[in-house]
Design brief:
The structure is a single chain. By secondary structure, this protein is of the alpha/beta class. The chain has 2 domains: 9-47 and 109-208, Rossmann fold (3-Layer(aba) Sandwich); 50-102, no CATH class. It is 27% helix and 21% strand. The chain has 5 helices and 9 strands, in the order H-E-E-E-E-H-E-H-E-H-E-E-H-E. The protein has helices at 9-18, 67-75, 111-127, 148-157, 188-198, and strands at residues 23-27, 43-45, 48-55, 64-65, 98-102, 132-137, 161-166, 181-184, 205-208. The two termini are 27 Å apart.
Length: 209
């Protein structure tokens, strides 16, 4: 589709590395790029998904697929960068404006949100005693509490866990994980490209952003 942004090469390289492995992906990305390369049962989007709308008032626990209305709004943009008022999405329950289902002041933490966390928690419960790699890709210092700090804690507490972070700026390794981790301060795309070219075989369970 002409409106679609192509999926970046790092996503494909990552999936090459995961082929044949037991893995789960947890992401705070809201751009649904991962959904193009992995089935949603192996994906936990814990900070929402811009493919859905929610009521801005959170008047009910439901989110709505928005692709068609987004395309209509995009096609209707005029020379003043405005759209017709009748195309502004409205909540079918209370009439309030709809907004993307992504982390914000009115983010709906309802059934779908809980399902996303249930998937990653089920994976961790099933694999906590196995050899497991926590691979952190691109987590910055703005919101370390969602992925980075839980990965640190899990790596420290699980006996066979290992942690790798790849980030050109914010690759941090706590002293407590000096024997169970590796911080790579390099470009993520370049590292995944090189790793995909070299990696073969099957092995660890992997939990990834």
């Amino acid at each position: 589709m002409e409106h679609e942004c192509p999926t970046g090469q790092p996503y494909y390289d990552l999936m090459k590395l995961l082929q044949g492995r037991n893995y789960h992906i947890m992401t705070t990305n809201q751009d649904f790029q991962f959904t193009r390369v992995v089935s949603e049962d192996k994906l936990s989007a814990i900070q929402g998904d811009s493919r859905y709308y929610q009521c801005s008032r959170r008047c009910h626990d439901e989110i709505y697929w928005n692709k068609e209305i987004v395309y209509k709004m995009n096609d209707a943009i005029d020379e003043h960068l405005c759209i017709p008022p009748e195309l502004i999405p409205r909540c079918p329950k209370c009439g309030a404006e709809m907004e993307p289902w992504v982390r914000g002041y009115t983010f709906l933490e309802g059934r779908k949100y809980k399902e996303e966390y249930h998937k990653i928690n089920a994976f961790l419960t099933a694999n906590k005693d196995n050899k497991i790699l926590f691979l952190e890709l691109g987590v910055g210092r703005m919101t370390p509490m969602f992925i980075q700090e839980p990965f640190w804690n899990l790596t420290y507490s699980l006996p066979q866990a290992y942690y790798i972070t790849i980030n050109p700026k914010d690759a941090l390794l706590p002293q407590e994980l000096s024997q169970k981790g590796w911080a790579i301060k390099e470009d993520i795309a370049a590292v995944l490209w090189d790793a995909a070219a070299l990696m073969s075989g099957k092995g660890d369970s992997v939990c990834i952003i």
